[in-house]
Amino acid sequence: MSGTPVLELRGIAKEYAGNRVVKGVDLQVLPGEIHALVGENGAGKSTLMNILFGMPVIHSTGGYSGEIRLDGREVRFAGPSEAMTAGIGMVHQEFMLIGGFSVAENIKLNREPLRPNFLSRFAPKLATLDRRKIDSDARAALDQVGLDLDTWTHVQGLPVGHMQFVEIARELDKENLRLLVFDEPTAVLTESEADRLLQVMQDLSARGIAILFITHRLHEVMAVAGRITVLRDGEVVARMDRSNATLEGIAEAMVGRKLDMTLADRRPGPGPESSLALDIRNLEVDMPGEAVHDLTLAVRRGEILGLGGLAGYGKVGVANGLMGIQPARGTVMVNGRPLKLNDPAGSLAERMAFVSEDRRGVGIMPEESIELNMVLPSIRVQRRFLRRVLPGVHLLDQKVVRGHANRMIRDLDVRTTGPAQSVGRLSGGNQQKVCVARAMTLEPEILLVSEPTRGIDIGAKKLVLDLIVALNRKQGVTVLVTSSELAELRGICDRIAIVTRGKVHAILDPDAPDAHYGLAMAGEQMPS
Amino acid sequence: MIAARWGDLVRGMGVPRLIIVAFLLVLFSVAAGTGMNLASLISQSVDRIARNGILVLALLPAIQGGLGLNFGLPLGILCGLVGCVITINFGVAGWTGFAMATFLGSLLAVPIGWVYGWLLNRTRGQEMMVGTYIGFAMVSLMSIFWLLAPFRNPRLVWAIGGKGLRTTLTLNENFEKILDKFLQIRIGDLVLPTGALLYFGLICFLVWIFFRTRAGLSISAAGDNPRFARASGIQDSRTRIQAAMLTTVLGAAGIVAFSQSYGFVQLYQAPLMMAFPAVACILIGGASVVRASIRNVIIGTFLFQTILTIALPVTSQVIQGDVSETARLVIQNGMILYALTRRGDRT
Fold first, then answer.
1. Quick one: which of A37, A24, A35, A32 has its CA closest to A4?
2. Shortest Cα distance from A483 to chain B (angstroms)?
3. What is the C-alpha to C-alpha distance for residues A418 and A434, in angstroms, rounded to an integer?
4. What is the model's pLDDT at position B2?
5. Do B217 and A376 touch (CB under 8 A)?
6. CB proximity A376 to B under 8 Å
7. Domain that holds residue B306
8. For residue A160, which of A216, A214, A95, A101 has the smallest C-alpha distance?
9. Do A326 and A275 contact (CB within 8 A), yes or no?
10. Does B11 touch chain A (CB under 8 A)?
């Protein structure tokens, strides 16, 4: 494990529209080494990989600075296909396979061995595929990953574990493969499949292929990695060898305390003896990519409870399940009464309101006015903002709606030309304020807020968070806030529940040590 | 100051409408310059606006409800035609006849609209294409019906053979021009069909009212963003069916009003292409595939129908030969194409 590094990154930096997401990263991967790259969501891992592969999103946003060296020579890839030709392979988190093609065809796609024929003399693209060679190459690659699978099986319908190995086999089949990047390869695998994958990674490294292993699962890092680099906020915050690394050490480096943005006055939140606003038992939510499995959680009346955890681990599914937006099963009691699941109107009638993480998809009616966006659910569920003109005929009370909208626009500082402007024309932050105003208009007892500050600028961020705290303190609204920004949760919450693999893994105090957060988010055993 | 107000005007009206207004002004000045009878041209224009208005209005609930441009409008038209045929068959005349035709047509349109909406719910995302084909298919199916329908009234059936409905039925003994002649204004050659305009206005008002009720607002919400609507406790599969029913009922009422003005009831292939000019009207009025207002309906009907009326005589004055039909098709289909390419934006 010495000599020229296969891959060397020197001072890589990248900014998106003035926002620096990668700030001077140095990284070396030696031949035959398994190098782990860990970090929270948004730490800059994906951007770094996009830079390495020369993805179009990098070029179209002004490129990057710093240099990439492959076997000591500087390279600057114009696109992923160039990177692949140079011997870098990638195993994706989401599979890049064609369902209707066979395993062998997928493995050899666009690199098929050819046999010349009559037509190919005039048009090389019309050469015949050498089926026998395709088959034998694929067989060899599959054997390397230990997958006993017929090469002519269609990929569609294969278990996800198999698909993952087919992806790896495809990368292995590339003759000059020098470096293989694994992007969260075990996220969708069962435990035994994950173990086999780690075994395959070790076999590959023994054959001299360098591996860059991106993951959240710290025990996997401890199991196979030679060296570990921790990224946070676009910077390398720690480098360690496995021999001197500990789970706690990695976890602490990963989370760290970011900006000190304590927003809420510290107060003792409602204690365990207080009555429950929400009593969630064995909740299952089939939300694609954010599934919740058998989650049990008690939300005390009057508290701000945070839901944290890594992307894809189910924290986002909780609120969507409670509001009837995603299909859910289980038992939920609201203020002691059973809640009918899968019925948005029912949840709203229980005085629950939701600010969705999917602002454009669920949060707004882009073509409608600001005022209508604010009051529509109240009209629908509570029959407010209507004026009786004839027996049985109730019309929108324009004057009251306008007054209400103007008040909200003023209170929330929505930057707009007026309440009649369509919401689609507003900036992201202002759209978010309209979403919050809509939830407030419902006068909820329980407010569910998901990713309240995603994609909005700092000023708006602070305003939205302050607003949530004010609703809680002044009007006693119980708040369940879901966020990927741990610092934000620690700033405003009384308690924080960390969700991993669809379950509440731990409930932490906002002042708990960083290491505890890191371990909880990685789904590791908590120190008691 | 002036520039700013001009800018507001452009934004308020939209560039396409300003161009068309300018084109109309040119047409009018050419007409005046060549000594044509302006009063009669205006009368004809107003006539056509009143005649077509409700058919254009019928598209509004479908757009607001998220079904896009209702190319399945012939469905409603066929319902209205059935109402007319039954009324003629029983020889009901005058206001009663008009009311009866409208009532029967609308009544029939309710279940038909329900089925239409149910079908569109099963083909989400392709409403416009499915609507077009349903319209075409039903026109052909109804052509068979017109041939086989058990009507025996000699005013309806072919004189020879005594079986099958005629292609064109006259309304002169029933309710021809009954709205047009109500409170009609005559100043020299200028004739205004006051009753028909009032009727159009009334239906517009009712639709406007409806879209300010809880039910109407729910339809609009589901049309703008079905996921928002669902999260707000609205069942969008229901509101979409309601929108389909409403558009079909208005189509039925619209063709009855159309027929009284025209004086004839046209069967067989006549309804086949009727959705297209109506769609062009509402688009020229500034509607998009996803949002429309009463204002779009009125402005669009006015602009499109006026151009059609004026362009024919003016072009035949200026150019030898008739290009107006060609111009109509270019404007109509060009407008539809333009709107489809700009899905989501206001045209």
1. A32
2. 20
3. 12
4. 63
5. yes
6. yes
7. 15-341
8. A95
9. no
10. no
Considering only A46-60, B26-40, B305-319, which range has the smallest mean pLDDT?
B305-319
* Token pair for A99: 């369902």
Query: Which residue, among B145, B167, B163, has the nearest Cα to B154 in the 3D structure?
Result: B163
Question: Would you call B225 and A364 a contact, using CB atoms and an 8 Å cutoff?
Answer: yes
Which backbone phi and psi does B148 adopt, to 5 degrees?
-100, -10
Q: Where are the domains of chain A?
A: 1-86+178-256, 97-176, 261-351+445-528, 361-443
Spatial separation of the C-alpha atoms in residues B165 and B154, rounded to whole Å:
9
Indicate the CATH number for domain A261-351+445-528.
Answer: 3.40.50.300
Which helix (H) or strand (E) segment holds residue A306: the answer is: strand A304-308
B149 CA: distance to closest CA in chain A (Å): 41
Q: What is the pLDDT of residues B25-72, one digit of tens each?
A: 888 888 888 888 888 889 999 999 999 999 999 999 999 999 999 999
**A433 backbone dihedrals φ, ψ, rounded to 5°:** -65, -40
Interchain pair A323, B227: CB under 8 A: no
Residues in chain A closer than 8 A to B224 (CB atoms): 365-368
Would you call B221 and A368 a contact, using CB atoms and an 8 Å cutoff? yes
The count of CB pairs under 8 A between chains A and B is: 71
Q: Which fold has domain A1-86+178-256?
A: Rossmann fold (3.40.50)
| String of DSSP letters for B255-284 | HHHHHHHHSEEE-TTGGGGTHHHHHHHHHH
Q: Give the count of domains, chain B.
A: 1
Residues of chain A positioned with their CB less than 8 A from the CB of B227 = 325, 358, 361-362
Chain A residues 273-332 with a CB less than 8 Å from chain B: 323-325
Whether B220 has its CB under 8 Å from any CB of chain A: the answer is yes
What does the alpha-carbon distance between residue B31 and residue B21 come to, in Å, rounded to a whole number? Answer: 15
- CA–CA separation, B258 and B203 (whole Å): 14
Task: Report d(CA B81, CA B169) in Å as an integer.
Answer: 11
| Contact criterion met (CB < 8 Å) for B233 and A366 | no
The ipTM of this complex is 0.85
Residue B222 belongs to some domain of the structure: yes
User: CA nearest A90: which of A44, A51, A60?
Assistant: A51
Decide if B181 touches A, using CB distance below 8 A.
no
For residue A381, what are its two tokens?
Answer: 């569920």
pTM (2 d.p.): 0.78
Cβ contacts of A396 on chain B, cutoff 8 Å: 212-213, 217
CATH number of domain containing B255: 1.10.3470
A354/B232 Cβ within 8 A: no
Alpha-carbon distance of A103 to B136, in angstroms, equals 45
- Tell me the pLDDT tens digit for each residue of A168-210: 888 888 878 889 999 888 776 777 788 888 888 898 888 888 9
CA atoms of A87 and A97, how far apart (whole Å): 20
How many C-beta atoms lie closer than 10 Å to residue A454's C-beta? 15
